[in-house]
Design goal:
By secondary structure, the protein is mainly α.
Length: about 160
């Protein structure tokens, strides 16, 4: 009776704290690995202003990505979001690794790409079949359940 529920944190707070924790976890390795000297040399060099702009653009792009991810999480069901995010990550790996860095398409890498794509196709197929089954089910009555036990939530 006397307990108050705390409001869920705002998505921007979650983003801020995840960045702070990541920076704190990585800081010792960065500092001990000469990160301070490398950044000082890069900022003080002939292209220091360009490097500072690149850092700022990188931060803005990262922030925009995080905002879009939180919006996607609110928009899609968790499983659907996971599938879409996996395909997004695959796209990044393929574009940066295979096209921009000219890495070879080995048989193992091709199998990995195919597994991800096949999983996405199968998920979409299963989702459509579940939706068709739900539409084909008779209208519920007082004696029958509202949903099939297999269809707890259409993802």
């Amino acid at each position: 009776e006397g307990t108050k529920r705390r409001a869920a944190p705002h998505w921007a707070q979650v983003q801020l704290w995840s960045c702070v924790v990541a920076a704190l976890v990585q800081a010792p390795t960065w500092a001990l690995g000469g990160g301070v000297g490398r950044v000082a040399a890069a900022l003080g060099g002939a292209r220091g202003a360009a490097f500072a702009r690149l850092i700022a653009v990188n931060g803005v792009c990262y922030y925009a990505e995080q905002v879009m991810q939180f919006q996607a999480i609110k928009t899609y069901a968790p499983r659907t979001y996971s599938v879409v995010d996996t395909l997004r990550r695959l796209t990044i790996v393929v574009i940066t690794g295979y096209f921009l860095r000219n890495e070879a398409f080995t048989a193992t890498k091709c199998v990995g790409v195919l597994v991800v794509c096949a999983g996405a196709v199968y998920y979409n197929y299963a989702k459509e079949m579940a939706a068709k089954e739900a539409l084909a089910a008779p209208a519920h009555t007082a004696e029958s359940p509202r949903r099939s036990p297999r269809l707890k939530k259409t993802q």
